[in-house]
Amino acid sequence: MRFRHPDGSVVHLAYCTNVHPAETLDGVLAQLRDHCEPVRRRLGRDRLGIGLWLARDAAQALVTDPSALRGLRAELDRRGLEVVTLNGFPYEGFGAEEVKYRVYQPDWADPERLDHTTSLARVLAGLLPDDVTEGSISTLPLAWRTAYDDARAEKARAALLTLAERLDALEELTGRSIRVGLEPEPGCVVETTRDAITPLTAIGHDRVGICVDTCHLATSFEDPHTALDTLGVARVPIVKAQLSAALHAEHPRLPEVRAALAAFAEPRFLHQTRTTTPAGLAGTDDLDEALTGDALPDTAPWRAHFHVPLHADPAAPLTSTLPVLKSALTKLVGGPHPLTRHLEVETYTWQALPPELRPRVRAQLTDGIAAELTLARELLTDLGLKELP
């Protein structure tokens, strides 16, 4: 979906396909048929943006076979879909029964991460619509925090510099400008937007910036306007933004609140949980850990890294951090010029919701994704953007 900003530029809105992960190119093509095109039709749109997640094997198939890449581009066109952004965070296995810490491997100290991201950039350059010259890729925030020392930090910095050089060369070859954004996430080396400033300014290349995920922003209790202003002062480019909402518990000390939170503790994804204390941010690596004994102080609200559907608040006594998303979006695109032109709805946890909230059939998932995009569209038009055909 495309929107005209009051300054005349085009802002793109997509939804991320990691909600129905596929490891192979055949699986990606099935996604387009079974999920993406039905969402477009449900919205009554001639064209729908999607943020593709391409696992290692799918990306390799596309980058080594030009005919396969041309075939994917043709299939996108045939189904009324377009791609200006990729989710390059998960490497493989995102549909596994247990993902947890595996999603952070390989990290940016591992040559495989550089090679994979380079492949994604080459694929994206071939998928961009004819009238679009800029693409974006989100990636993990360097590494999970443990076992990350100075030597690994230097390897990561060198890898990102090499990536920037490769992206420069790719633009010279194709005329397409691809940028990559580190996506701050709780528990990682880069947990907050402020954590991103030092490594990104050390790289000092506008090909590599930040991807602002509003669920992660909220989970770490960052104020959106302060965070985005700080990035602006540091001249860190905002490559893309992911529109998502976290789980909020106002009174975690109450038994009924803990019982409600326990329903969201599940074995597939990591749900880092945070609270604020006089000494700063405190947290656990997962929600079930936070609910065990006194692992986390419970005198202030808790937020959990669980991407809840944008359009549907969880039942009381829980809420979502949708207000944080709205505040961030106002700052991102509500000013005289957009801070980023790539927005992506990313609720990948539909099948990890408590059983009574999960879509039971494909049509329910289609309805849910369409409802999220409808909400995002309304937020954008309320900010003065005009939807384009």
Automatic annotation (TrEMBL):
Keyword GTP-binding: no
GO molecular function: isomerase activity; zinc ion binding
Protein name per its UniProtKB record: Xylose isomerase
Species assigned in the record: Streptomyces fumanus
Domain Xylose isomerase-like TIM barrel, residue spans: 60-233
Domain of life: Bacteria
Gene3D superfamilies tied to this protein: Divalent-metal-dependent TIM barrel enzymes (3.20.20.150)
Keywords noted in UniProt: Isomerase
